[in-house]
Design brief:
128 residues, single chain, 3 helices, Nucleotidyltransferase, domain 5, five-stranded mixed sheet, alpha/beta
């Protein structure tokens, strides 16, 4: 990984980290501190859909986010990688976690075309 960070500093490539997080717009506040006699209110959206944010992030806080309402499955992740890979202007190494979506046959089938565009995926746990 250090080798890639050195190459990144030299401007030869970019190093990205991909991950996702989900947010539910229905708040859960089991308890909270508030002055006696006051009411604590948390405004929410009228729908109950889950909001998911998938993103490519660099060590320098450059972020390419994808906001998805509803379920994230293999097709959604592939579409994010498709879009991201088409925007590259130099070789990019993307570190992944062990999410099952990124180990699926459908995801793996797309890797060769992403490599042709300059996007190389790396599992974070496989790098010494």
């Amino acid at each position: 990984m250090q080798h890639l960070h050195t190459r990144e500093q030299q401007g030869k490539c970019d190093v990205w980290y991909f991950d996702s997080a989900g947010f539910c717009l229905t708040p859960s506040i089991p308890y909270a501190w508030q002055p006696i006699g006051s009411v604590l209110e948390v405004p929410t959206a009228p729908h109950k859909q889950r909001i998911n944010v998938l993103g490519f992030l660099t060590r320098h806080n450059a972020l390419v986010p994808y906001v998805i309402e509803g379920q994230v499955d293999t097709a959604v992740v592939i579409e994010c990688f498709e879009h991201f890979s088409q925007q590259l202007n130099k070789r990019a190494y993307v570190f992944l976690d062990n999410a099952s979506v990124q180990k699926s046959r459908a995801f793996i089938r797309h890797i060769p075309q992403w490599v042709q565009r300059g996007l190389i995926t790396q599992n974070r746990h496989d790098v010494p």
